[in-house]
């Protein structure tokens, strides 16, 4: 038997270490120091040879750095690094990790105002995710999760009608997959919340399309799942519960159930205040999006003071 040894380029270790250090600093409320760590990691990437080495660990390190840069409000740097990560994964022909990287690239391009390029990347991500979900049983759960997230995100910033059918399809397949895993007593700790997150995305998409009764049903199922999980591990699952409650409040308001919507929104607000306290001043892109959506729900409910409180709690990066 021949054994081959592949050594990861030192740059990958440096970038990963600086990225993780920067994230810890940000979560400790030291955003300035976090930005300095990200700056050093970005400098390592900038001086690398082109094309960057086709190494999986390096691709993962660059993906993490892109996320940190985006969370720190460095959108141009986030786009540059994410493009490099996608380039590496293409040359490695790693479809399982290429698909979510393409989804991230789509988000970065959209944030840069390049809508056509963002749609092209998203379309490729969806095609790749479908292929992975259909051919690789081992990677199916992760692929379906990313498929749901990608399609739900498409529905958030493009025409929701373009994404709805695919979102429903992905959620239905994921629902069946998790049900099979439950029956076999093999469902992992990540698959239940992934399904609930997918249902949250579906609810938001349905609400934007005016299919509010179906949206309430999907969001309510997401809330039940996240609430059960949060009872055991609140620190891990409360953010997902807050997101699901926000989606439920939006759909209930659209359905005319204003008292129920206000109750769900207020519970979501209290959860958001709780899980952001340990890291004042540092919010991930996802957290800011969640808080922005919750503030909009309060505005729609005529609760301007509550909306302003949420916006004050979520400073821009």
UniProtKB/TrEMBL annotation:
SMART domains: TPR. It comes from the Bacteria. InterPro entries: TPR-like_helical_dom_sf, TPR_rpt. This is Tetratricopeptide repeat protein. It comes from Microtetraspora fusca.
